[in-house]
Specification:
Length: 356
């Protein structure tokens, strides 16, 4: 219809309205028939394109009084998985963090159950890899409740070579072949350690990252394979820190003292429970300055460097136990408990599960 003859247009429209023409009803837009499409920031609404725009109708995309504006819907974040470290080695602690879950997640690492706790407006679990873990990938599977159905989060740890050293040490022969007279004492030590490590699982007693129990040179890293006097084969489940007898030793983080004891092999020993299945151990002390049950803060004195037990000289053996395994304390120091960044590319929503 030629737009240059407005009177003729108006006459035809009035005639069609009087006759109840369905063609004009379909072509005349109203607010009740408007299509409003929700969108996320950065996208645009898609208006209806059916029918013809009658003369005088609003320009497409314009918002006029009495019309519904396109909705701007913020994206809803679902559960999200982070792993630290992304490339561990055998004997490392592993921190699994889940954000965006509506309640406590469940999950496994290489089939081993994870124990989650509320942490930093989300949830976390501290676990470990055995020293025998072969190189390759380790699967981490977590089921996280969302705002709707649960979401399966799948991650992968790329485990590298351990690089453990081989060492031979010389110690007093009684520590290689203990006499019968001390075997009962060694059994009592074993039971005392087992009782100390049997604390009930609880949320962390600390709120910051871990720190060295003393600033000193590492004389023996975690995982060294050792032979004593050419006979006894064992592995070093701690980090040895150099120090003269009497040098101070402090708590690596907040926690509760669960052992102060003189043991046959570890000498004067302090164990601190930090919650979340995590313990730190301080061996060979010349003096113990805390008592069982004491609440300690990071940096509080625990004792003094010494050479008690099975040693070759004065030093601090610092051990870390996470999820019932001895782990590398130097890796624990690198874990960020205060807001872990995501390890890139380690977690995705699995198909077949509902979105939150």
């Amino acid at each position: 219809m030629p737009a240059r003859n407005p009177p003729a247009v108006r006459l035809l429209v009035l005639s069609l309205l009087a006759s109840g023409s369905p063609a004009l009803a379909a072509a005349t837009p109203t607010a009740s028939s408007a299509v409003v499409t929700g969108s996320v920031p950065g996208s645009t609404a898609t208006p209806s394109t059916s029918g013809l725009r009658a003369p005088g109708a609003p320009t497409q995309g314009a918002v006029h009084q009495g019309e519904l504006a396109p909705l701007k819907v913020a994206p809803v974040g679902g559960p999200h998985l982070s792993l630290q470290p992304a490339n561990p080695k055998p004997g490392d602690p592993v921190l699994v963090t889940v954000s965006g879950a509506s309640s406590l997640p469940t999950g496994t690492i290489a089939g081993r159950p994870l124990r989650f706790f509320a942490w930093n407006n989300g949830y976390a679990a501290l676990t470990s890899l055995p020293v025998e873990q072969p190189e390759g990938t380790v699967a981490v599977d977590v089921t996280a409740p969302g705002r709707g159905l649960p979401v399966l989060l799948s991650g992968v740890l790329n485990v590298g070579a351990p690089g453990f050293r081989e060492r031979e040490l010389r110690v007093a022969n009684k520590y290689v072949k203990p006499p019968k007279a001390v075997k009962a004492r060694m059994e009592a030590d074993r039971k005392a350690f087992a009782a100390a490590f049997a604390q009930s699982f609880q949320t962390p007693l600390f709120g910051q990252n871990f720190a060295w129990p003393r600033e000193a040179t590492v004389t023996a890293p975690f995982g060294d394979r050792r032979s004593f006097n050419g006979k006894l084969q064992t592995q070093h489940f701690g980090v040895d820190l150099d120090g003269a007898t009497g040098s101070p030793v402090v708590a690596a983080n907040d926690g509760t003292v669960v052992m102060t004891r003189e043991n046959y092999a570890s000498g004067n020993t302090v164990l601190v429970h930090h919650g979340a299945g995590l313990y730190t151990a301080y061996f060979h002390l010349s003096r113990i300055d805390v008592k069982d049950g004491a609440q300690v803060k990071q940096g509080d004195p625990l004792g003094l460097v010494g050479s008690t037990g099975r040693v070759t000289g004065p030093h601090l053996h610092w051990g870390v136990k996470a999820d019932d395994r001895w782990v590398d304390g130097q890796t624990l120091l690198k874990l960020d408990f205060t807001g872990a960044p995501e390890a890139p590319g380690v977690a995705t929503n699995a198909p077949g599960m509902g979105n939150p």
